[in-house]
Amino acid sequence: MNILDKIIADKRKEVDLKKSLIPASQLEASALFDRDTFSLAKALRDSSTGIIAEHKRRSPSKSTINQDTNVGQVARGYQKAGVCGMSVLTDIKYFGGSLEDLVLARASVTIPLLRKEFIIDEYQVLEAKAHGADVILLIAAVLSRAEIKIFSELAKSLDMEVLLEVHNKTELQKSIMPSLDMLGVNNRNLKTFEVSLETSKTLSELIPDDFVKVSESGISTIDAITDLKPYGYQGFLIGENFMKTADPGKSAAEFIQKIN
Ligand SMILES: O=C(O)c1ccccc1NCC(=O)[C@H](O)[C@H](O)COP(=O)(O)O
């Protein structure tokens, strides 16, 4: 079983348990559910830097990145640095994140927030809205076209945006549909954990212009951004490079200053 299969098998159990504990109606009645959202797609289109900075404590490819984070402080640092949006990992078992992290980030900033999660059920889309997200991530590798349609249309009906993540041509071609806002190409091979920006370059020409293109994972230099921009990328999702430092906000600020 590869890591993604393992994550998804655990996620199914987790979501089933949560659904039995907290009914969807309770999520829909929560204070954060009925609010205006911020557009990440617009922020990226209007930006010359396009950084989406991630809050990430650990990952399957890196057991420890930063265990001492204060998510509110990191969020404020990222906002001050001028990022276009923040990605908050909410998976606990593999990434050490939580929905509480998302709520704390929401309480701290007014930039678009992406719920970075392995979404396999409509319930998690409702959870995302109820905990402060503006954007959900859908991963083509673990979803059918029908599921992508159902989850993305639900997100749109709740005024959230959708970032669809692909790793290859097959995933991309099965997923294109109007209810997506951004197309993310993940440079990390989830079987080997190797990262290669060539993945973003190769798939770029297959992504229709209606979608904002985002390159994800393994980005740690200004050269990488300079290299990817001619391929039409307007968004760059960066986690470890900022989170491995003592002050991720400061690190993002220094990085962004160098792009301009
Ligand atoms: O990061 C991992 O090891 C990982 C493993 C399996 C599934 C997903 C994984 N990461 C999620 C992400 O997409 C990244 O956190 C995000 O793109 C930022 O990547 P990086 O800048 O390399 O931290």
Strand content: 15-25%
Helix content: 40-55%
Strand order of the largest sheet: 1-2-3-4-5-6-7-8
Report the total helices: 12
Shape: globular
Please mark out the parts with pLDDT under 50 across 5 or more consecutive residues, or reply none.
none
Q: What is the assigned CATH homologous superfamily?
A: Aldolase class I
- Rg of Cα set: 17 Å
Oligomer: single chain
Q: SSE order in H/E notation?
A: HHHEHEHEHEHEHEHEHEHH
CATH-level-2 architecture: Alpha-Beta Barrel
CATH class: Alpha Beta
Kindly identify the CATH topology.
TIM Barrel
Bound molecule types: ligand LARABZUK
Report on the biggest sheet: 8 strands, parallel, barrel
Fold and architecture overview:
The chain has 260 residues and is α/β, with parallel strands linked by helices. It has one domain: TIM Barrel (Alpha-Beta Barrel), CATH 3.20.20.70. The protein has an eight-stranded parallel barrel with strand order 1-2-3-4-5-6-7-8, surrounded by five helices. Strand 7, helix 10 and strand 8 form a beta-alpha-beta unit. Helix 4 packs across helix 5. The chain is globular. The termini are far apart. The structure holds ligand LARABZUK. The site of the ligand O=C(O)c1ccccc1NCC(=O)[C@H](O)[C@H](O)COP(=O)(O)O has 19 residues, from strand 8 and helix 11.
